[in-house]
Amino acid sequence: MKEVPVGVSARHIHLSEEHIEKLFGEGYQLTVLKDLSQPRQFAANETVEVRGSKGSFPKVRILGPARKHTQLEVSRTDAFQIGVKPPVRESGDIAGTPGITIVGPAGEVELEEGVIVAARHIHFHTKEASEWGITDKQILRVQLQGERPLTFDDVIARVSDAYALDMHIDTDEANAAGVKTGDKAVILD
Amino acid sequence: MKEVPVGVSARHIHLSEEHIEKLFGEGYQLTVLKDLSQPRQFAANETVEVRGSKGSFPKVRILGPARKHTQLEVSRTDAFQIGVKPPVRESGDIAGTPGITIVGPAGEVELEEGVIVAARHIHFHTKEASEWGITDKQILRVQLQGERPLTFDDVIARVSDAYALDMHIDTDEANAAGVKTGDKAVILD
Fold this sequence. Notes:
Chains A, B: Its cofactor is Zn(2+). The structure is a homodimer. Chain A is of the alpha/beta class.
């Protein structure tokens, strides 16, 4: 059985070096609150406010390290709440997505694009992917047998030496399935 | 193909006659904003505030007519937001569920039990159910081919002469599937 641990992503933001400095001050370095399941990725102690047209989230967790482009990942529920209309996209694919206002202790950023609802996906280390016959970008059907059993028919496989086995879903998806981080998912085909 | 229209339920409340009077005044009658898909059910013009331990929703839509027992239906996301821990239940099955504070223009109600996350279900008129070989309480697998395709493996069939064909899911479920009211679902078996 191809069993995968589930990681539920709450709304979070990845910041570029340039935006970290604008929001927190020149030369500022994020500090580590907690290591994440993917190697070298961490939840930072720092948070920012994000402001949409209808509302704001005062404390959105920053995930480090800095990335090339700033990217805010929200659930569809979050998006309705603050008044932004992001598409469902893979991480990094932000061309043409909406922007948002980001507020930190040292300044603000008017982000032009970068708000997405993250497409559900599984990170595989190259070794597991190879053993299971799974290739990068493959679309998988994945069953979650939580309190509210369901099968996602469109889970994207992402394969790299830099990844650890983990299925990433957002809070809407976790709540629809009745699962939490650490629960198990099963790849059906 | 067994095709069913989807109806997305936002958070809402059903009130008993007694609670309508406590919240809106003696002899008060709800007024109709909009008829719903189920015969004789309606969204009322009236709303109430509901208050949990961590937050409140200032305008929760009342669905009429009055019921025997007051029942608040929220998504899991809603429940986290206001600090209440309802189980996933079928409508009407409220024994042992948490309560909540309800505030209306004429008074407040300390509800002792009645908060649920509604179990996903399909209403069938007896005629369709019979044609499709579906029986009351049967568990169905139902596919939603929206922006984020998925299959719910635990959809409860509810069959009655008083029902019209409609699949009811909450906002978490709709957002996880990328569907909206009026989209179509397909019963797989």
